TrEMBL record:
PANTHER family cross-referenced by the UniProt entry: METHYLTRANSFERASE (PTHR43464), UBIQUINONE BIOSYNTHESIS O-METHYLTRANSFERASE, MITOCHONDRIAL (PTHR43464:SF19)
UniProt entry tagged with the keyword Cell cycle: no
UniProt-listed Enzyme Commission number(s): 2.1.1.222, 2.1.1.64
Record-given protein name: Class I SAM-dependent methyltransferase
Sorted UniProt keywords: Methyltransferase, S-adenosyl-L-methionine, Transferase
Keyword Ribosomal protein: no
Segments forming domain Methyltransferase: 57-157
Pfam families linked: Methyltransf_31
MF-aspect GO terms: 2-polyprenyl-6-hydroxyphenol methylase activity; 3-demethylubiquinol 3-O-methyltransferase activity
Superkingdom of source: Bacteria
Matching InterPro entries: Methyltranfer_dom (IPR025714), SAM-dependent_MTases_sf (IPR029063)
Length: 233
């Protein structure tokens, strides 16, 4: 990983903002990911994220914290927050912004336990592909304190396969439709391709059942997106 995402966050943090990240996927064209969005305050967060922050309790783990926007909000409210990300640049920025416990760490290497685990901005993306969902969910479950909760958002992206007449062109023999190849570039450089997973609510719920998690729908967003709360059963 070249960490272009982290480089972009560092540029923005250090007043060197000249252009946005460009993303695309195997099923969609190029799109800008505006850097200021990654530094959003509570007011500019989608309502699903605001709801997740309102539901936070106890000690919190912010998984894939990016620039640390959610961690900062909760820390200011008095929560103990650990923020982790595999991007060195992101963690450097989160620290510069004041996140006290920010560490470069893959979620699969986390061993502490928490009352609330946050995975926000398509939190299921980190699972990469359907075949890995049980592994990640089992690990996340193992990090929960008694009565702990996992708050995670995602989208049902079936709409991305619809043409203008409402017809769906999905290949039913292909793998799960939410598994995407994700491409990112910044300042003319290309990041190594990544896998990024969008999970519809029913598929997430079924996966949760298989690992002993109860999955509740907390809130639906405006565009096929939702926030789920997972608790151990
Ligand atoms: C879409 S960004 C979201 C950033 C932040 N949560 C936000 O809402 O602004 C996803 C983040 O997850 C991080 N990430 C990806 N896989 C990870 C893993 N296995 N463990 C920890 N972080 C991961 C990426 O480096 C990236 O910063």
């Amino acid at each position: 990983m070249k960490d272009l995402f982290g480089n972009a966050l560092l540029d923005y943090q250090n007043g060197k903002y000249t252009e946005d990240i460009i993303t695309s996927t195997n099923i969609s064209d190029e799109d800008d990911l505006p850097l200021p969005y990654l530094f959003r305050g509570f007011k500019d967060m989608p309502k699903l994220e605001q709801k997740a922050l309102k539901l936070a309790k106890g000690t919190v783990l912010d998984v894939g914290c990016g620039a640390g926007s959610h961690s900062l909000y909760l820390q200011k409210k008095g929560f103990h927050v650990d923020a982790i990300d595999i991007s060195k640049g992101a963690i450097e920025v989160a620290k510069q912004r004041g996140v006290l416990n920010a560490e470069v760490k893959n979620i699969l290497e986390e061993t502490n336990s928490f009352d609330t685990i946050l995975l926000l901005m398509n939190g299921t993306g980190i699972f990469q592909e359907l075949a890995q969902v049980s592994k990640y969910l089992t690990h996340l479950k193992s990090l929960l304190k008694p009565n702990g909760q996992i708050l995670i958002d995602s989208s049902d992206i079936q709409y991305m396969y619809e043409d203008e007449d409402g017809g769906v062109w999905m290949d039913m023999n292909a793998s799960y439709y939410g598994e995407l190849d994700y491409f990112l570039s910044y300042k003319g450089e290309k990041e190594d391709p990544m896998k990024w997973l969008y999970l519809d609510f029913n598929t997430l719920q079924t996966a949760c059942e298989t690992v002993g998690l109860k999955c509740e729908l907390v809130l639906e967003g405006d565009h096929f997106d939702y926030l789920a709360r997972l608790i151990a059963v």
